[in-house]
Here is the input.
Amino acid sequence: MAAKCIKSLLVAVFSLSLVLFSATSYAQEPVTEHVEGTHEATEEKLDPAKIIMDHIKDAHEFHFFTAGHFHATIPLPVILYSPSKGFAMFSSARFGHEGTEAYNGYILKEGNIEATDGSVVYDFSLTKNVVQMIIALTILVLLMTGIARKYKNGLGVTTAPKGWQNAIEPVITFVRDDVAKPNLGKKWQKYLPYLLTVFFFILINNIFGLIPGSANVTGNTAFTAVMGIISAVVILASTNGHFWGHIFWPPGVPILVKVILIPVELAGVLIIKPAALIIRLFANMVAGHIIILSFISLIFIFGAMNKGAGWGFSPVSILFTVFIYFIEILVAFIQAFIFTNLTAVFIGQSFEGGHDDVDGHKHEVISTM
Here is the structure.
């Protein structure tokens, strides 16, 4: 059974790679130009870096595959405001598939919409990252409210949980027992809703990013920056006087060392901790997509040199792609856990007391004399 599943997955990945990069393979065909009555064949070079970046960056449409002159895309609404022209709303399909056509005084250049006359433009468009994030949020709300409604009606309380309850309950228990309680002590109930929201929101977006044609939302710096800033606000809102006292006047440290240590500690709270959350999630989610697309690109790189080499390397490339894809499924869960766990750790550090104060109370000193 497992062999059949792997075989089917290999076929799916290979078919997907051919579909996603069919436009690239067409670019490798020689183009004949007439120069003074002679035929001179020129060939466009494959640019893997550009292809990879086009697949992982944000866009104004969902592009699934290209077959000949047919492009399977879902255009998204463009919403613009210009001080000279006012508001404008239209479909991104107006720019053409290649995005080189101007419409209503606007043109799409490298993913950014600009005015043809060079005037200032404010872009409020629903890009694929925004749309997918809204979809993920909708699924999260519907899923959790549906499960909560079942618990409220007694299903899963007096009886065994069913359906999504059975799948979600162990995850919630894991976040509660292994993330919230160890790091937050007696205050775990206060922060558990936020930690669960962060975990499931990142997890759903991570999994959606693995679907062909979807957006890599968690691999976007804007998304991870907002998540990091929100966590930073929660961390700072949880601080107390004892915490800031240690930041601005570290105890037991010489005065000259304090002059150096205070800016470092302050930077750690305001910059380093949020940056650790932001960069870790962004880098890990982008890296996996780049590796997968790189392995698929190798088929066409070798094929550009020799068709036999391209076909010969295809099985190797597909095997590595399938392996990395399974790793990415695991990474989707791991990165959601790491972001949530680090947030809990930083929150716990923000309201902890002195060295003899753990979980909000002082332990009694037991003499061994």
About this structure: Residues 255-305 form the longest helix (51 residues).
